[in-house]
Amino acid sequence: MKVPTLPARGLHPPTFQFFFIVLLLLGLICISPVSALSVTGSKYMETLPPGSVALHGIHIKAEQGDDPFDLHAEVMGFTNGPDGAYQPLTTKEDTGPYSARRFISLDRTQIRVEPGTSQEIKATITLPQDVGSGGRYAIIYLRSQPREQGQIGFITAVAVPVMITISGTEPLEAGTITGITTGTIATGQPFTVTTGFSNTGNHHYYRLTDTVVVSDAHGVISTASVGPAPYAIVPGSVVQFRVPVDSPLPVGTYTVQSTVTKEDGTILDQKSVNFEVAIPFTPPPTSTTITLTPQAEGVLVSPDGRYSVTFPAGSVLSSVDVTLKPVLLDQIPSATEDITIGSSTFVVEGLAGLLAKPATVRVKYSEDDLRAAQGDAGSLKLARFDAGGNTWNILPTTRDGDTLVAQSDRMGTWAVVSAQGGAGIGIDANMLMILGGIIAVVVILLVAFMLKKKKNSP
User: Fold this and answer.
1) Tell me: the pLDDT tens digits for 285-310?
2) Domain holding 230: CATH number?
3) Which end of the chain has fewer CB atoms at under 10 Å, N or C?
4) Domain that holds residue 147
């Protein structure tokens, strides 16, 4: 899918951005994707004997009002992505012993779908007598031809999974944990245990659960799990289970045990690894919401007390719900080379535009923020991401003990950053207006003084 080409970083004057957004919206209006496409027969899961032949029909329909479109159909291999989602494999990639790709043929691979009509693609499944045991898997991949106008194109794709169990054979349901990682452990960021798991059997299974237990020398500290997984995991696929740990961890050595089970509780595999916590870990805060009114001051505080935003009375013109929630480091925009983003990152949502009065933001920085600043607390600042300018706006920041304080008339994405030499320090709109007003008054006074002086001159 093609996407609009964005302007170069830093070249975002308001007028250009306004016209770019208008053109983008016009492009989206002019191009209508195949949004009302409906598919019947979008899954085939049957038990078939060796040497049998089966048929499967896939019906594609476009609703009235849609544009006509061309559809390409192809038989491909079948695997799971890291998140378990079904993914097609090319002929070159599909080399596993449990592939059904070569057993499936289509009566046609190209069709034209007119609005209000239905088209059918027939798949013939022919199993050889010596097909083997367990399961066989493929994906019938339907993809519309891209329709383009300007810089935007749309493609609609549908993956039809084919899962065949060979009757009269013994399915083997087995699996192996391929690895356990804890990633970087930083205060204010989620600590996630990632377990890699591979289906090493010859048959698929549903509804897997991964349970993670964190313990130290004194016993169990935390137990958490994810699942049941909604996807079938097919043989040969490697998936990842990501289990968040929300218990504080002091400095020390820990053991994490991961156990993957089937729906009936049968353990497929279990493994343990040790990991170190070098800096005390505090989990990120959960979301919190308050209702701001024009008449009263409002204070938005994270449940752990590390983040707070004080909105003075009159900062909003009508009642509005405002939410503070943590945001992952890998989900926030990157910074320039002279700015290092710490682990304290969050977003304040619910406010559109400028506040009538600036709010005061307070953040208690962590040891991980200090580590990002190489131990220099004086270089820590509060920064807000300016989506309009596509840059981090570092605000004038004061320090009250271990708390950073700044004011802003805009909310959005925030971070504790280390800015050596005050790089990138910016000023918000209200402050600019105040400074602009002061400059204007000074200019007017100077002009009046010069005119008066000229008038009084002989």
Assistant:
1) 778 899 999 999 999 998 888 899 99
2) 2.60.40.10
3) C
4) 38-166
